[in-house]
Amino acid sequence: MSLPVLLFASYADAFGARTVQVPVVAPCTVADVVMAMRLLPGGDRLPDKPLVALNQAYAKMTAAVNTGDEIALIPPVAGG
Amino acid sequence: MSLPVLLFASYADAFGARTVQVPVVAPCTVADVVMAMRLLPGGDRLPDKPLVALNQAYAKMTAAVNTGDEIALIPPVAGG
Amino acid sequence: MTALPPPLPFEPAVALITEPIDLAQLIASVSHASVGAIASFLGTVRELNDGRSVTGIDYEAYEPMAHREMLAIAREAGQQFSGVRVSIVHRLGTLTVSEASVAIACAHARRAPAADAMRLVIEQLKVRVPIWKREHYTDGEWTWVDPMGTPR
Amino acid sequence: MTALPPPLPFEPAVALITEPIDLAQLIASVSHASVGAIASFLGTVRELNDGRSVTGIDYEAYEPMAHREMLAIAREAGQQFSGVRVSIVHRLGTLTVSEASVAIACAHARRAPAADAMRLVIEQLKVRVPIWKREHYTDGEWTWVDPMGTPR
Q1: D48, C4: Cβ pair inside 8 Å?
Q2: What is the DSSP letter of D114?
């Protein structure tokens, strides 16, 4: 089982992709997804507490992730 | 002897003119000019403490007025 | 945030005009490669004032003094917010509802001084610059507006 | 100051675009006969950042979420400053020095809420909206900008 996670900017560079398949089994938590990502190639470049969006809204590490949810890692934003 | 005083907006309406000749003898003070203006037709419509500009800058009542100075009465401003 | 290079000298541009205000032109006058933020302000004629229905406003100024005061305000903003580039234009004559009477543009490397300078300029302009407005109402009456309610 | 009539409902307009920003169009979108003040903000590409000479910036967004966050910010501004009419546009893609990356327009009957809403929107946009910028420098290097200096 794996979940797709969307990547942008420096995180897309770190993983060398705009989407990675993360080997976790849903339902799980956002923290589980992030922990699994650290083991992927490039995962060592993630900060201690990366921001995560679940279905296009910022989510806590304890938030539940279900199959079909849209998950994205959000690098430090720099709009404006 | 008299000094010309520039009028604008509601003060021009009060005196019915854009300039009035005020019967004072220079050198005098801004207060002297204002006091003399109160005796002119329309002068009763001036507020207690009208703003006065001397040579295009706000002036105190005690400021000295000399022949050739540009004097103007400044109604409550409403720019913007 | 690291230090920025020293700001370039900028002579504020101020104007009193009778034609419609061109905000794009005003913004262009403060733009520069060193600029990262431009805060601007437009004052427009409102259809309602003090509950009365407005048809238009005549703006009148003591023009040479108004020009001096606007320039003084722009320079004071430049001193208080070092490096800010300020332009101000005020329209005179008769304006209808929704037309712009005043426009201010303040440009700076950073957004806080640009926005703060813009506020300083409009607040100072409202209390110091010798400009007056006569509001006309739908019932045919008119009055010289006194924002402070000073007895006349 | 007397009471103003209740504000009209206004649905904020937000957009992510790749073409150059048209501030006049943005301002027109918030204009209304009930409006007396329009505060606007332009963010522009600065030639120097952290002492490095910038040649251009690539802006990238998580577009659907960025759109949601911009709309949420505009609505929050509308709640905090009742009656304010907010439009926001952010440009994506490659921009050169002096080009505008973001524009905000906030219109209100009175100037204080218009200006305060504009500040709220730009500050919130900078911390919440998932948009990123890659700065390119004259020496050929580039970096993803991290305004908070968070270790990556």
Answers
A1: yes
A2: H
3-state helix, strand, coil in chain A (%, to 5): 25, 30, 50
φ, ψ of residue C109 in degrees (nearest 5): -60, -35
D102, D128, D144 ranked by CB distance to A10: nearest? D144
Quick check: C98 and D23 CB within 8 A?
A: no
Residue of C nearest to D1 (CA): C50
- Give the closest-approach CA distance of A80 to chain D in angstroms: 5
State residue C151's pLDDT score: 38
How far is the C-alpha of D86 from the C-alpha of D92, rounded, in Å? 20
Within 8 A by CB and 6+ apart from D135, the residues are D49, D52, D54, D56, D57, D142, D143, D145
Beta bridge partners of B29: B64
Whether a cis peptide bond, with omega within 30° of 0, leads into A27 is yes
Mean pLDDT by 10 residues, chain D (152 residues): 61 96 97 97 95 96 98 97 97 98 98 98 98 97 86 38
Q: Is D130 exposed, middle or buried (0-12, 13-18, 19+ CB in 10 A)?
A: buried
DSSP for residue A26: S
**pLDDT tens-digit profile of D51-61?**
899 999 999 99
Per-residue pLDDT, D6: 57
Burial readout C107-138 (b: 16 or more C-beta within 10 A, e: otherwise): bbbbbebbbbbbbbbbebbbebbbbbbbbbee
Contact status of B9 with chain C (Cβ, < 8 Å)? yes
| pLDDT for B1 | 79
